[in-house]
Design brief:
Fusion Protein Consisting Of Minor Coat Protein, Glycine Rich Linker, Tola, And A His Tag, Chain: A, Domain 2; single chain; 7 strands; alpha+beta; 143 residues; 3 helices
């Protein structure tokens, strides 16, 4: 009886370690959302990240064409990069925007309005399925 219990404990421990290491590879894969307007599950780690149609250079060209902030204020800006985190649906829609780093109020407002005009994004994929995920958008003012 003692050896059988020892064997079961060894098997259980091995399965726990295997399960933990399998999860470690994927990391904390998702978070649950209680906001009915967004996704039920937001994937933090995906196989393919969210993408802008045409790539990052195309996205920056779009942003800089749409933004109308006062270019004369550029020398007064202390920061040169703004960071916006967006929640993107499995359909490629931007559901929410979070400003992580702002330059100034006018530039931030202008950038968020330009992001509102984005075309549908290419959604993130996990196991071959389109999923909700966050995406970071860096916006530099050096252009």
């Amino acid at each position: 009886m003692g050896k059988a219990i020892q064997l079961l404990l060894t098997i259980g421990l091995s399965m726990t370690i295997f399960s933990a290491s399998a999860q470690k590879d994927k990391g904390p894969a998702f978070e649950l959302s209680n906001d009915s307007l967004s996704c039920d599950t937001v994937w933090l780690l995906t196989d393919t990240p969210v993408a802008y149609p045409g790539g990052i250079p195309e996205m920056h060209d779009f942003l800089y064409k749409k933004m109308t902030y006062n270019k004369n204020l550029l020398p007064t800006f202390t920061a040169t990069r703004m960071m916006v985190k967006v929640l993107v649906s499995a359909k490629g829609e931007i559901l929410k925007k979070f400003v992580l780093r702002e330059i100034n109020e006018e530039f931030t407002k202008d950038a968020l309005q330009a992001i509102d005009q984005f075309p549908l994004l290419i959604p993130a994929k996990r196991d071959g399925v389109d999923v909700c995920a966050y995406w970071l958008i860096p916006i530099d003012i050096s252009k």
